Amino acid sequence: MNIKKLTFMAMLTAISMIVFLIEAQIPLPIAVPGVKLGIANVITLFAIWTLGRKEAGAILVVRIILGNLVIGNIMGMLYSLAGGVLCWVILSLLKPHMGRNQIWIMSIFGALGHNAGQLAVAVLVSGTPAIAWYAPVLLLASIVTGFFTGQCTQAVLNHIDKLQRGI
After folding, report:
1. Could you tell me the pTM of the whole model?
2. Which of 77, 72, 86, 93 is nearest to 115 (CA)?
3. Spatial CA neighbour of 37 closest among 100, 115, 106
4. pLDDT value at position 31?
5. In this predicted structure, what is the pLDDT of residue 163?
6. Would you say 56 and 13 are in contact if contact means Cβ atoms under 8 Å apart?
7. According to the model, what pLDDT value does residue 135 have?
8. Is pLDDT of 167 > 70?
9. Coil vs helix vs strand at 146
10. Which of 88, 117, 118, 135 is the least crowded, having the fewest Cβ atoms under 10 Å away?
11. Rounded Cα distance, 76 and 74, in Å
């Protein structure tokens, strides 16, 4: 791996951690645990699209581990890793089949995977299958937040294209 790529990955990791830390401070008006905007996933989508799936996976895992260590949420790390890795797998599988104008579709499916991973861990950790009753709310939240993060990623990629063309 060359130094330029490694530096770019470090920069994206730092940006995703900053976004993750800021987002952790934003209260949402939804009483369902685990629902958040997932703005840091814009960086994961961007990295998958520009660097590749292995690099995006590395950025994601470092962000989840360091971000949760910084905010002192060790148990949250388990949920984040399960959701993040499942999201990454789905994004990685969909990317070869999607065009740049379909990033929002990838993002919605990634968000669905993320929430499914977190819900599975919640059921396993608590031993309470009734937690799965959160699934419909999480499904709706996944669609909304996935669409939002997908559109944000598309806007960033379009802006970078313009900058590279000198417009």
Report:
1. 0.89
2. 86
3. 115
4. 67
5. 84
6. no
7. 87
8. no
9. helix
10. 135
11. 5
* Residue 72 token pair: 């002192």
Contact criterion met (CB below 8 Å) for 153 and 49: yes
- Range of weakest confidence among 31-35, 53-57, 163-167: 31-35
DSSP per residue, 80-144? HHHHHHHHHHHHHHHGGG--GGGHHHHHHHHHHHHHHHHHHHHHHHHT-GGGGGGHHHHHHHHHH
Whole-number average pLDDT of the chain: 90
DSSP state of 35: -
According to the model, what pLDDT value does residue 137 have?
Answer: 87
Residue 110's closest CA among 135, 96, 90, 95?
90
Percent of the chain with pLDDT over 90: 63
73: nearest Cα among 19, 15, 142, 20: 20
**Can you state the angle between helices 103-126 and 41-50, rounded to 10 degrees?**
130
CA proximity to 52, closest of 19, 81, 12:
12
Instruction: Examine the pLDDT at 152 and tell me if it is beyond 80.
Output: yes
